[in-house]
Amino acid sequence: MRRRSFLVALAATPRLARAQDGAELRDAARRAAIYLAPLYEMYVRRHRDVVEHGQKLNRLSRQLAPENGVLSAAAWLDLSVEPLFLTLPPMGQRSGSAVLLDPFTNTFARIGATPEPHMIVGPAWKGAVPTSEVTEIRAPSRSAWLRIGIAVNGDDDDLDAARALQARLRLETPDQRNERRIIEMRELMRQRTVAPPEPVVFWQEPRPGDPFDLFDAGLAMLAECVLTDQDRQFLESLAPLSLRPGRKFDARAFSETERAAIVAGIADAVKK
């Protein structure tokens, strides 16, 4: 189901001005959990890759062993400050492509193996795009997940060739691209920025044993998205839960009976 239709279906339940009883609160929690579930999964995956496994933001992580006939590379992107440039090498008859996913796990761009670079920009970026040099991709959120796959046929020689192509993948900041072009072509790109400090991570560790962590982590990821009118209307329909992007869920504002109803609603969503 497309996200717009999904939101319409979730919002079909009448808007709750306040929780009249446990059943209403339970239903609100169920709908909230369904909405926040993909955001939560992306939060947990990003935390695992970047915090636990030490992957750098805006840097490609290359997998040297193929899985299911595909040699993979991936990167978590922080587009809050400046754009990034992605270039895939020509692959001839070999299959290869890149996809960009938003925090809702929706694919918002698919890139084939073309020689021209792609400039990936965040929703708040207002700089000029050198359209004669690059293809612009505007992300719907400050965070995105880049995944690249290169097909291999299983033979050692072909795997070596695929690895050589993988090594030529480039994900660059404007300054990194400038430096490379100065060295390779003695050319300074018109788009010049001052290199920002490396992104600092302030993500709370996921708490898989806490049912309310789905709300906390999901809302943290939601704060990195540009909300549509439908998103805002849907969140308003959950008014009894007081869910706010970027804020933690205040379980202490509810009685023990109400908290039990909310937990039951989250469990209802997980069963689906």
Tell me what you see in this structure.
This protein has 272 residues and is an alpha+beta fold. It has two domains: 3-50 and 205-271, no CATH class; 61-173, Immunoglobulin-like (Sandwich), CATH 2.60.40. The protein is built from seven helices and nine strands, in the order H-H-E-E-E-E-E-E-E-E-H-E-H-H-H-H. The strands form two sheets. The chain has a five-stranded antiparallel beta sheet with strand order 1-2-8-4-5. It has a four-stranded mixed beta sheet with strand order 7-6-3-9. Helix 2 (22-52) crosses helix 5 (213-222) and helix 2 (22-52) crosses helix 7. The chain is elongated. It starts with a helix and ends with a helix.
Secondary structure layout:
Blueprint: H1 3-10, H2 22-52, E1 61-62, E2 70-78, E3 84-87, E4 96-101, E5 107-112, E6 118-121, E7 135-138, E8 143-151, H3 156-167, E9 170-172, H4 174-185, H5 213-222, H6 229-236, H7 256-271
Parallel strand pairs: 6-7
Antiparallel strand pairs: 1-2, 2-8, 3-6, 3-9, 4-5, 4-8
Helix pairs in contact: 2-5, 2-7
Low-confidence stretches: 14-19
The strand line-up of the biggest sheet is: 1-2-8-4-5
Beta percentage is 15-25%
How many helical stretches? 7
Distance between the termini: 14 Å
Largest sheet: 5 strands, antiparallel
Residues in helices, as a percent range: 25-40%
Overall strand count = 9
The helix/strand series, from N terminus to C terminus, equals: HHEEEEEEEEHEHHHH
As a whole number of angstroms, the C-alpha radius of gyration is 22 Å
